[in-house]
Amino acid sequence: MNMYVPIQGFISSFRLLDIVDILLVAFVLYKLYYLICNTRAVALIKGLLVLGAVTVVSKVLDLHVINWLLQQGMTVILVALPVVFQPELRRALEQIGRGRFLRSGQGINTEELNRLVEEIAAVTESLSKTRTGALLVFEREVGLNDYIDTGIFIDGTVSRELLGNIFIPNTPLHDGAVIIRENKIMAAACLLPLTSDRSLSTELGTRHRAAIGISEMADAVVVVVSEETGAISYTYGGHIYRHLEVKSLQKILLNFLRPAPQGWTNIFKWRPAK
Ligand SMILES: Nc1ncnc2c1ncn2[C@@H]1O[C@H](COP(=O)(O)OP(=O)(O)OP(=O)(O)O)[C@@H](O)[C@H]1O
Questions:
Q1: What 8-state DSSP symbol labels residue 39?
Q2: Which of 1, 4, 117, 250 has its CA 20 to 30 A from that of 14?
Q3: What is any one GO biological process for this UniProt entry (predicted)?
Q4: In testing the pocket of ligand 1, which one of 207, 233, 242 has its CB within 8 Å of the most ligand atoms?
């Protein structure tokens, strides 16, 4: 039998639409990768891959009992997934619903971004020196209107003076978080969800737990200044990165908030901020 016949058959039946089909699947997989990278879901996927590999090996070796147990376990895991990963699923659906899944552009230009980051660096440095507690949430693709609604609406351009004023202790706006959208302070004194992660250091109180909590629910990047130590930290994807220098914070913010390249041609060149 000629072994090239199936390949020839495959090539001759290949249509232009199949290329479109493959490109679409590649695009959706790429976007899904962006949604889950730097989240808890990565560890889960690794776990599922290991379980899948063990299931295949047990099937090949005819280990009936182990194979049966693994298959039953898989069913339970698949049913439990939507419950455990409700925040991630909600985030994914929100992005699709807001049309962001297909959008690569953001509303802030490089000049505005540089100014924003300068202002944030200046105010963070001064808050850190005076040991004034602060919580700054930078909205990215996932909308934070639910949390903006819990605070006091401001809608003012970001400046070191305005932010410095907001966080003066014992004033009405200092308690809670400031939420920033592009280069606007949308609201202050916002209430954020606390993380339920029990493995966190006991040094971290509610301010830091709120910063981690919101970063689990959305793709926001959050800057925290500790009232107790003046230490600067940021959170993203449910992780906290502590004791930052102002210079590193500037680089991190530039990276996270930089405008994405515009247009379809650049969509595959774009990389999620790490
Ligand atoms: N759910 C929340 N959402 C927004 N802000 C919160 C929330 N819970 C607490 N905060 C802020 O954190 C402050 C309390 O900080 P706390 O001392 O418990 O935290 P911490 O992580 O130890 O921070 P610090 O190092 O600054 O003391 C509150 O006054 C309030 O401003």
A1: S
A2: 1
A3: cAMP biosynthetic process
A4: 207
Separation of 192 CA from ligand 1 center, angstroms? 10
- The domain tally of the chain equals 2
Rg (CA), the chain: 23
113 and 232 part of one domain: yes
CATH number of the domain enclosing 109: 3.40.1700.10
Pocket of ligand 1 (CB under 6 A): 133, 135, 175-177, 191-192, 194, 204-208, 210, 226-228
**Taking CA 147 as the corner, what is the angle to CA 141 and CA 150, rounded to the nearest 5 degrees?**
160
> Which mutation among 190, 206, 223 tests ligand 1's pocket best, with the greatest number of atoms within 8 A of CB?
206
Average pLDDT per consecutive 10 residues, the chain (274 residues; last block may be shorter) = 66 82 90 68 80 90 90 86 78 66 63 95 97 96 87 96 96 95 95 91 93 92 96 95 96 88 45 38
Cα(111) to ligand 1 centroid in Å equals 33
State the residue range of the domain holding 89.
4-100
268 falls within a domain: no
